[in-house]
Amino acid sequence: MFSSILMRLRALFSSSYRFHLSGMKDGPAYLYLPDHPSRDVSGVVSKSIRIRDLIGAYEGDDVVLDFDSKGRLMGIDIF
Asked: Are the CB atoms for 31 and 19 separated by under 8 Å?
């Protein structure tokens, strides 16, 4: 089920120049948001927050929000 969701997201964002979804069929995925400079640029993430830490009763897939030093959301890890 999760892989089919990823495939739908990939199809949705593949035509957009502002979003990029990377990941393998059954592995982790990363959604690059518009404020992320490039998937080839490292060191832009200064803080990561797990959804599990924000929502105590969260029982879904492991999701991590990545922020830059200015507090802008740069990307989303989905495990």
From this structure: yes
Query: Which pLDDT value is given to residue 1?
Result: 46
**Residue 17 clears pLDDT 50, i.e. is over it:** no
Tell me the C-alpha distance between 37 and 18, whole Å: 10
Nearby residues of 28 by Cβ (< 8 Å), 6 or more positions away: 77, 78, 79
- Tell me: pLDDT of 67 over 90: yes
Centre a 10 Å sphere on the Cβ of residue 21 and count the other Cβ atoms it contains: 20
Quote the pTM value.
0.66
Burial, 33: exposed, middle or buried (Cβ in 10 Å; 0-12, 13-18, 19+)? Answer: middle
